[in-house]
Amino acid sequence: MADPRGFLTTDRQLPERRPVEVRIQDWQEVYQDFDARSLEKQAGRCMDCGIPFCHQACPLGNLIPEWNDLIYDRDWGQAIERLHATNNFPEFTGRLCPAPCEAACVLGINADPVTIKQVEVAIVDRAWEAGWITPQPPESLTGHTVAVIGSGPAGLAAAQQLARAGHTVAVYERSDRIGGLLRYGIPEFKMEKHHVDQRLAQMEAEGVKFRPNVEVGVDITVADLRRRYDAIVIATGATAWRDLPIEGRELTGIYQAMEYLPPSNRVQEGDLEESPIDVEGQHVVIIGGGDTGADCLGTAHRQGAASVTQLEIMPRPPEERPQAQPWPTYPMTYRVSSAHEEGGERMFAVSTQRFVGDDDGHVRSLELSEVEFVDGRFQPVPDSERSIPADAVFLAMGFTGPEQGPLLEQFGFPVSERGSIKRTDEYATSIDGVFVAGDAGRGQSLIVWAIAEGRAAAASVDRYLTGDTNLPSPIRASARPLTV
């Protein structure tokens, strides 16, 4: 324990966000710099508990007390080594993870938890700046080949682990750039894409081959892939979006969130001069109160929407941890993201009843009603109907599982009741040599679970190819995620 009194003498502190009126004029990340000495003091709040519940709450098993101690002692070089011991991409999780580790922090029982995410991202950012993160190619090659389908966090984690074990790995991605949702689903203001690019450059130097613009099942058949590679890892994610089949759904101006977010990211990449879905001066309604909805919210602010309203069918969560969700579980509390801080209205316990359009077939409003949970179902509250203007509507209601299409048809996988690909506890499918990692097998989940599953699946693939493995296997496929 670096500072025995740190949790008593130092209050929780986070870096300041850039002023709203400044940051909505650009697409840069919202946080300002946080000086190293302040961060070291924050790390000193860690109590190095006898039972580190933060460690247990993290699907990756991050060695949080260890790198907090190292940062307080100003040993940043060793801290990045301990961080990388369990996490291939801390620059991603430090920006995008909802931090179940902080919810499980022992200090959080009766005080503010340690700023674990901020310490994590500061370690890796400083390591990149200092040149401490370098390629780690294998000393020798095994002669085995592996194809990874999908280049999101699960696929990239599996690919990097397998390449470091000495296998020849190729990552197939149907989009024109590598990164999956990291590239096109996460807005630039949450994570600038140079963080993805520098990690991909490291992986290429380690021997990973990237194959963008190749859709398996269309541009190359599954049969060809199986002939070419000794093992296959499917990490395509759960990208089949949930729709809202109600009256008026056919009107123009109603989009899925993943039809809206990628073009704005392509503008930032320089691929487009402007997004084909631009809501400047429009009244925007976002259906879905989660992170994807908040991403749409922040994007609409930056495009200059006249108003933005975000709808959520669940009631507004409490400000404090509910008694039914005791520590160290992840509590469903009211959270304000940077996008919410920038403006817009949030409406809870409401359900959209129908969309209303103009004579040209474009949506102009939607009718909603308040709801209450009765006998296991949401029921409209009588006489609570109302109409709100809507020139553009974005559906951000989550995902139902992997997309059904040529890839799954050619493999012929059985799927679970939730629509995900069935697999064993070792990530193996019913087809010999074919494995599944991440949301494609787990269902929609968190980035930390995707990386953890990619690492664990890589260990199973390595064992399948060589009979043994030295790769760490942090979890089994049967482990269930925290509800976040």
Q: What's the CATH class label of the largest domain? A: Alpha Beta
* Structural domains: how many: 3
Question: Termini separation (Å)?
Answer: 30 Å
Mean pLDDT: 95
| Sequence stretches where pLDDT stays below 50 over 5 or more residues | none
Shape: globular
CATH superfamily of the largest domain: FAD/NAD(P)-binding domain
How does this model look, in words?
This protein is of the alpha/beta class. It folds into three domains: 6-130, Alpha-helical ferredoxin (Fumarate Reductase Iron-sulfur Protein, Chain B, domain 2), CATH 1.10.1060.10; 145-239 and 400-466, FAD/NAD(P)-binding domain (3-Layer(bba) Sandwich); 243-397, FAD/NAD(P)-binding domain. The chain has 19 helices and 16 strands. It has helices spanning 6-9, 20-23, 36-43, 53-57, 64-72, 76-84, 90-96, 100-103, 116-130, 153-164, 181-184, 194-205, 222-228, 257-269, 291-303, 338-341, 406-411, 439-442, 447-466, and strands at 145-149, 168-172, 209-211, 231-234, 240-241, 254-256, 283-287, 307-312, 345-348, 350-357, 363-374, 377-380, 386-389, 392-395, 399-401, 434-436. The strands form four sheets. The protein has a five-stranded parallel β-sheet, with helices on both faces. Helix 10 (153-164) links the parallel strand 1 (145-149) and strand 2 (168-172). It is globular and about 65 Å long.
